[in-house]
Amino acid sequence: MTDVIQDAAQLDAYEAYREARRRFVTGAQGNLALVNTEWITGDPSVGQSAFGVPGLWFALPEGESGLRLEASAAEGISVDGELVDGSVRVYGQDSERASGVRFSTTVTGFVIASEEGTYALRVWDAKSESNRDFGSIDAFDFDPAWVVTAAFTPIEGGRAIGVEHLKDNGVPRERVVPAEITFEKDGVAHALTAFEDNGNLLLVFSDATSGDTTYGVGRFMKLVPDARQNDTGPGTVTLDFNRAYLPPCAFSYHFNCPMPPRENRLTIAIEAGEKNVLNAEGTLLH
Prior knowledge:
- With about 290 residues, the chain is mostly beta strands.
- The protein has two helices and 19 strands.
- It has helices at about 1-25, 130-135; strands spanning about 35-40, 50, 55-60, 65-70, 80, 80-85, 85-90, 100, 105-115, 120-125, 135-140, 145-165, 175-185, 190, 195, 200-205, 220-225, 235-240, 275-280.
- The longest helix has 24 residues, at about 1-25.
- InterPro entries: DUF1684 (IPR012467).
């Protein structure tokens, strides 16, 4: 009876997670709503237009967060709730006072930073074509067999690896791996690499289903090591592959997602988690 209750609780939690994912990707600034990422670089005295939205956008001097916006009141742009009529600084997401931009009732934006210190305007449209055509996120049925306890062994000082991104032309970005993650499935040992990403621990992987029954680039999973884990001794981390989710680039071409490191390209078929993004007719959205 205890196992039945536990399985029912897991299934309920999984269904709630699936609904939360649907709400997230269809939100006003969800994955489906991203319609442009416009990098504003060069001479800070030269304004640039951003596709699909009004205003002139200027880079700031090196070391300063964000962009400068010039617009008239007639263009209807507000920054942090204030109508812009002249010039205003739009702080980036790397700032403690990150700015929010609104262009209309459905179109919003904010400014992101690159690792090189350049900035881009990201534009979101709650009524984007992708949001309009979206049907569902296809996913495997919940399978408790894919909830795996793995060993989590910290690496003193971390280990740097190069991670390629879809739009970086093969140029890797350095990421820090804080620990070795190993697990056994059906008598076979596996080792995975999860790296630090914006304060989280992110696992980017592909498997034998990638490009067949699941999204070809791979899938993501956020990891939270056991709270009893310390900085020097081994601990555990739960790998719930039922919560493996599609990267943002599966929903919008305007994202630049990391690709699975070589050690995370598994040869086994992980038949759990999200598969693909479908349109209202039940075929692939992109």
